[in-house]
Amino acid sequence: MLLGRSPRLRAIAGFAIAPLAPALLLAIVLLAIGGEHATETLQYTPYAAFVSYPIALLFGAPAFFVMRRRHWNGWRAYLVAGVLLGLLFFLLSLVSMEGGLVEHILATLPFALTGAVAASLVFWAIARPDRTGGDSDQASRPSA
Predict the structure, then answer these.
(1) What is the separation, in whole angstroms, between the first and last Cα of the chain?
(2) Residue 16: what are its φ and ψ, rounded to 5°?
(3) pLDDT for 19-37, tens place per residue?
(4) CA distances (Å), 26 to each of 96, 97, 131, 135, in order?
(5) 79 and 121 in contact (C-beta within 8 Å)?
(6) Whether 59 contacts 88, CB under 8 Å
(7) How is residue 95 annotated by DSSP?
(8) What are the backbone dihedrals phi and psi of residue 22, each rounded to the nearest 5 degrees, phi first?
(9) Any idea of the CA torsion for 9, 15, 16, 22, to the nearest 10 degrees?
(10) Which helix (H) or strand (E) holds 110?
(11) Percent helix, strand and coil across the chain, each rounded to 5?
(12) How many CB atoms neighbour CB 32 within 10 A?
């Protein structure tokens, strides 16, 4: 398989596919919960994808390059990066907050964290930076 041979192609495929993970996750949760407003609320699913791609480019791509440079290539490193990116998205969402703080936290924080973690782990599963000769979770082993 051509994609499996090229780390660059795997990274590009990861950046193309992984930002869809939060939108897909939102759709699955809304359909599982059901209720009278589930299909109505599904209209927000494309918005999740619309938000995820700019975040992936603005924050995910630089995080990827920093992590590659430091040889943080394992899934745990990407899990931590996903949590941090989710917290960053949440903090940025406080700027446009409407309503009470508690309601905003309860509505936004769980989705921001799970969506960012899902996107990070999907990216890792596709790009597999640990298969390019780096250490899986070691921070600074010198290259040979």
Answers:
(1) 28
(2) -75, -35
(3) 989 888 878 887 787 766 6
(4) 21, 20, 30, 33
(5) yes
(6) yes
(7) T
(8) -60, -40
(9) 150
(10) helix 101-127
(11) 75, 0, 25
(12) 8
Eight-state DSSP code of residue 71: T
Cβ neighbours of residue 22 closer than 8 Å, sequence gap 6 or more: 48, 49, 51, 52, 111, 114, 115, 116, 118, 119
8 Å CB contact between 21 and 122: yes
**Per-residue CA distances from 73 to 26, 87, 127, 129 (Å):** 27, 21, 10, 5
Tell me, yes or no, if the pTM score tops 0.70: yes
> Distance (Å, rounded) from C-alpha 64 to C-alpha 73?
9
pLDDT bucket at 65, cuts 50 / 70 / 90: very high
Q: Running DSSP on this structure, what letter comes out for residue 134?
A: S
By CB atoms closer than 10 A (0-12, 13-18, 19+), residue 56 is buried
pLDDT tens digit string along 75-90?
999 999 999 988 988 8
- Residue pair 53/19 in contact by the 8 Å Cβ criterion: yes
